[in-house]
């Protein structure tokens, strides 16, 4: 499985053994008087304070909703492989230590744990993230009786928070949060709102009121809009257009489309369940005003879904997870699989950063931050069930890319097991010549995936494809070195690699369920060198059999998000070369 991603793949490091020469390349104020409600204004919606609101977008079709997963298993093909989260409806061990109201109790079908609990979808055109929650009981309160009537201060949702937390680095703590705030309606601020929040403090609290210095409310948008002439909440038709006849079904209504939020009665027979849907524009996930990041379509992150009546502890009512979790907001959370909005769920572990510290003598500490589905034990320790192997590449030409003739990725120390969500190793550089080196990581989980963070890295930027499923490729490496007379040494090496069927980014970019599979290929590389002191003479042959193959591809997208063609990456043709290196 390949993904186009802005993630950490290789860190540049300049080494000089024995010297320090490492170079690593608002709180809300209550209003004094009541505001107007958010008005629809015939398609020019406004918030209660009169400023422009973000208009609703058409809801995804049933087939477009993506069940969110925790711990996808290779080959990542079936729904069972993808392991969508099915939060227990009854006897839930992740209920925050409380008995939640039925409308904030996240369910998973009848029978229990038979259907996914949570879904999401990203619309590349409107740049809106859609969320869907399966809950046990109706959560909305407007137009649920014989006639809708005028809006009230508590319209249109019951008092609760349906919160989505986003973790950008994999440490188990939210960076962004966003929620449907059913507790926000009040005489001063009629009609509930959607809100985005950001903080860089290692906590899962979203208390932007009590901790306004460190937890910041970013943007709001209405959960519904009021018709100016009737004071009734506007009903929409699923396509972001007001219904021709407003609320015609009275107490038998089954779909309450308020525009940016929606409730759907999906009950069958004796099984009562509802969907809670809402829309969050990506533009609301921008913390630049507070010195924070901005979410874009290439940013890797993890979701965690929770319900509560508390800003301080969003875990208070229900944490959407299939394990035992009863913790407060000081605990890391059991975030699920990594996601990119542009490509979807990333099934394998990835690295969000790789760094090297200052040399101590001839040892350099290297550290990587791993992102993968998290298990939290005793509200403190985090495990990801992965093994990681650091590797280095001698970057002779200094361009930040592993393209040097005869070069190879070489292990740093022994494989490491992450502590929490970070992995470390000590790199002995005593036998390396002075120069620039690239550091990368090979990460293996217990679900059949191996990620090589350098794969298909063809430029020094971080906007690259990365990763393979380990069972789709095989590599055989031979390496032999021996001493010659007069302090010369010789080295012979060779590598044969087989890469199986590979997907491309095209299916994700088109939003279609198509494979676009690249055929398998095999390639042979050979290398030899003679070395004495600071001198090295290298001979190399890449792709000896001159195999022609495609190794990656995707749609070329212009600045208006319009495809203009297909970008294909080809295997380097047979290349022969010689180089002479002199260390200074």
What does this structure look like?
With 584 residues, this protein is mainly beta. It has a domain at 469-584. 2% of the residues lie in helices and 35% in strands. The chain contains 2 helices and 33 strands. The protein has helices spanning 79-82, 506-510, and strands spanning 3-6, 11-15, 66-67, 118-123, 128-135, 161-167, 176-181, 193-198, 216-222, 255-257, 261-265, 274-281, 301-308, 318-319, 338-340, 344-346, 350-356, 363-371, 375-377, 381-383, 386-394, 410-411, 422-428, 435-445, 450-452, 463-466, 473-483, 489-499, 521-532, 535-542, 550-557, 563-570, 575-582. Strands 6, 7, 8, 9, 13, 14, 15 and 16 form an 8-stranded antiparallel beta sheet that branches. A 6-stranded antiparallel beta sheet has the order 3-4-5-12-11-10, with no helix packed on it. Strands 2, 21, 22, 24 and 25 form a 5-stranded antiparallel beta sheet that branches. It is elongated and about 95 Å long. The two termini are 42 Å apart. Mean pLDDT is 83; it is low at 1-7, 14-33, 459-474 and 511-515.
């Amino acid at each position: 499985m390949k993904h186009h991603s802005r993630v950490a793949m290789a860190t540049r490091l300049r080494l000089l053994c024995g010297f320090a020469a490492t170079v690593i390349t608002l709180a809300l104020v209550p209003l004094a008087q009541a505001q107007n409600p958010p008005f629809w204004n015939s398609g020019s919606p406004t918030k209660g304070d009169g400023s422009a609101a973000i208009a609703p977008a058409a809801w995804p079709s049933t087939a477009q909703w993506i069940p969110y997963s925790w711990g996808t298993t290779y080959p990542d093909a079936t729904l069972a492989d993808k392991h969508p989260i099915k939060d227990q409806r009854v006897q839930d061990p992740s209920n925050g230590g409380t008995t939640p109201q039925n409308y904030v109790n996240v369910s998973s079908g009848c029978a229990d744990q038979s259907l996914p609990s949570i879904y999401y979808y990203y619309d590349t055109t409107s740049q809106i993230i859609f969320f869907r929650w399966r809950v046990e009981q109706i959560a909305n309160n407007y137009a649920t009786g014989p006639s809708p009537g005028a809006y009230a201060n508590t319209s249109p949702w019951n008092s609760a928070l349906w919160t989505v937390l986003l973790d950008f680095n994999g440490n188990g703590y939210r960076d962004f949060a966003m929620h449907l705030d059913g507790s926000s309606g009040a005489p001063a601020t009629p009609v509930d709102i959607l809100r985005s929040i950001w903080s860089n403090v290692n906590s899962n609290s979203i208390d932007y009121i009590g901790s306004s210095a460190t937890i910041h409310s970013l943007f709001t948008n209405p959960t519904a809009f009021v018709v100016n002439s009737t004071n009734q909440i506007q009903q929409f038709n699923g396509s972001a257009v007001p219904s021709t006849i407003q609320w015609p079904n009275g107490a038998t209504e089954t779909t309450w489309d308020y525009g940016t939020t929606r409730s759907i009665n999906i009950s069958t027979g004796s099984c009562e369940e509802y969907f809670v849907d809402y829309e969050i524009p990506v533009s609301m996930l921008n913390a630049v005003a507070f010195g924070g990041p901005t979410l874009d379509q290439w940013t890797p992150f993890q979701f965690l879904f929770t319900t509560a009546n508390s800003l301080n502890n969003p875990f208070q009512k229900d944490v959407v997870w299939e394990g035992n979790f009863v913790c407060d907001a000081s605990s890391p959370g059991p975030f699920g699989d990594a996601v990119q909005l542009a490509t979807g769920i990333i099934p394998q572990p990835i690295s969000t950063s790789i760094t090297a510290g200052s040399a101590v003598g001839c040892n350099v500490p290297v550290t990587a931050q791993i992102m993968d589905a998290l298990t939290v034990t005793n509200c403190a320790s985090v495990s990801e069930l992965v093994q990681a192997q650091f590797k280095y590449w001698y970057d002779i030409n200094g361009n930040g890319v592993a393209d040097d003739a005869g070069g190879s990725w070489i292990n740093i120390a022994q494989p490491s097991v992450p502590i929490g969500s970070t992995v470390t190793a000590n790199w002995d550089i005593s036998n390396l010549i002075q120069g620039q080196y690239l550091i990368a990581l090979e990460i293996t989980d217990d679900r059949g995936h191996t990620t090589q963070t350098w794969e298909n890295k063809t430029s020094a930027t971080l906007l690259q494809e990365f990763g393979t499923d380990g069972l789709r490729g095989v590599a055989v490496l031979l390496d032999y070195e021996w001493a010659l007379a007069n302090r010369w040494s010789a080295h012979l090496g060779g590598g044969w690699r087989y890469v199986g069927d590979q997907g491309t980014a095209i299916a994700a970019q088109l939003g279609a369920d198509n494979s676009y599979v690249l055929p398998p290929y095999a390639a042979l590389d050979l290398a030899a060198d003679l070395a004495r002191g600071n001198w090295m003479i290298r001979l190399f042959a890449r792709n000896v059999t001159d195999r022609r193959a495609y190794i990656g591809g995707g749609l070329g997208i212009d600045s208006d998000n319009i495809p203009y063609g297909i970008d294909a990456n080809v295997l380097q043709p047979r290349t022969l070369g010689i180089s002479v290196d002199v260390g200074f």
